[in-house]
């Protein structure tokens, strides 16, 4: 059991690649309930760094959906597209520490590097970056920089981080990942110039003073990377709770990519139905007569189940 942090601050951080669907509402509701159950603040951050994937207007549509569900934020939303200077400053600090380096490799270069090491083609995928452009291997050797990567092994050794990195999730319990072996030198700034999710989320969680991250379980395996980055940047690590995923008819995770339908919250009934479905996924009791009475009851149920965890 970990103590409730003083001055709880939570957030919901949707990517505006479409409106909320049944799966994303679960994360929104859970993070809101956790903040309310702790008497804390709840923030909304629009994670629009991956601009090609963003759908125009989806940000405001999401904010309207949250409002229709009674999930009120305590501060004005942030847009990550307005935070580029903070990401650039963070990358600069990592570069100066010798913990981030430019990489010239294309996907084909990475495959070729694995092939040269005798790793069969079908086993290249999902492998960490082979380290071709690491400074100790000669760096760019005259090639043009594309992406920027974290020198994960250097950070882990310099800071004496445990291998594997062990972290605690309030729902999933103790988790562990060997970050260097599993993901290696991950990207901080992409070849197309866009900021990587890992860097943006870590910088903004700290800048917003987030004490508690509550989000979908599909993001759980990003957490060790984020903890390494937090340590590299001297930022605090929030507590984490990853919520159950909503599955489609064939057991697959419901997501925009596999055609999850946006929630149509035309009236109070529709909003209550959507909330009740999300609450059921979270193991909360059935709804009350109205939306606000239901939210009230779920805060109490959530507090009982999660506040001390
Ligand atoms: N923007 C991410 C997403 O919508 C969530 C980030 C997070 O909660 O850390 O999948």
Brief overview:
The protein has helices spanning 22-37, 58-68, 84-96, 107-116, 152-158, 179-182, 197-207, 223-233, 268-281, 291-306, and strands spanning 9-12, 41-46, 78-79, 100-103, 147-150, 165-169, 173-177, 187-189, 212-216, 239-243. By secondary structure, it is an alpha/beta fold. The protein has a 5-stranded parallel beta sheet. A 3-stranded antiparallel beta sheet has the order 4-5-8. A two-stranded antiparallel ribbon has the order 6-7.
Report on this structure.
The termini are close together. The radius of gyration is 21 Å and the shape is elongated. Helix 1 packs across helix 10 (291-306), helix 3 packs across helix 7 and helix 7 crosses helix 8 (223-233). It folds into two domains: 9-81 and 197-230 and 238-306, 3-Layer(aba) Sandwich (Rossmann fold); 85-189, Glutamyl-tRNA Synthetase, Domain 3 (Glutamyl-tRNA Synthetase, domain 3, Alpha-Beta Complex), CATH 3.90.800. The strands form three sheets. The chain has a five-stranded parallel β-sheet. It has a three-stranded antiparallel β-sheet with strand order 4-5-8. A two-stranded antiparallel sheet has the order 6-7. Residues 1-5 have low confidence and may be disordered. It has helices spanning 22-37, 58-68, 84-96, 107-116, 152-158, 179-182, 197-207, 223-233, 268-281, 291-306; strands at residues 9-12, 41-46, 78-79, 100-103, 147-150, 165-169, 173-177, 187-189, 212-216, 239-243. The protein is of the alpha/beta class. The structure holds glutamic acid. Glutamic acid binds next to loops.
């Amino acid at each position: 059991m970990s103590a409730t942090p003083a001055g709880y601050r939570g957030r919901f951080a949707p990517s505006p690649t479409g409106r909320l669907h049944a799966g994303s509402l679960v994360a929104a509701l859970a993070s809101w309930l956790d903040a309310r159950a702790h008497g804390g603040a709840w923030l909304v951050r629009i994670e629009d760094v991956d601009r090609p994937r963003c759908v125009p207007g989806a940000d405001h549509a999401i904010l309207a959906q949250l409002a229709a569900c009674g999930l009120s934020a305590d501060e004005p939303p942030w847009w990550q597209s307005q935070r580029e200077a903070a990401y650039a400053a963070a990358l600069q600090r990592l570069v100066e520490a010798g913990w981030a380096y430019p990489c010239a490799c294309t996907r084909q270069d990475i495959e070729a590097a694995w092939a040269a090491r005798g790793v069969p083609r079908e086993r290249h995928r999902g492998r960490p970056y082979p380290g071709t452009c690491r400074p100790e291997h000669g760096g760019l050797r005259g090639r043009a920089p594309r992406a920027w990567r974290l020198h994960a092994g250097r950070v882990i050794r310099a800071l004496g981080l445990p291998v594997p990195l062990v972290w605690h999730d309030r729902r999933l319990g103790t988790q562990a990942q060997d970050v260097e072996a599993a993901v290696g030198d991950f990207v901080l700034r992409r070849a197309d110039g866009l900021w990587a999710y890992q860097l943006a989320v870590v910088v903004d969680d700290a800048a917003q003073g987030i004490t508690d991250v509550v989000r979908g379980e599909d993001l759980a395996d990003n957490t060790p990377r984020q903890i390494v980055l937090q340590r590299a940047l001297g930022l605090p690590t929030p507590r984490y709770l990853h919520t159950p995923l909503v599955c489609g008819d064939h057991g697959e995770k419901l997501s925009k990519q596999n055609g999850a339908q946006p929630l149509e919250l035309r009236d109070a009934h529709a909003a209550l139905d959507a909330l009740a479905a999300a609450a059921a996924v979270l193991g909360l009791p059935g709804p009350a007569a109205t939306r606000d009475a239901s939210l009230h009851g779920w805060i109490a149920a959530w507090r009982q189940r999660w506040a001390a965890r």
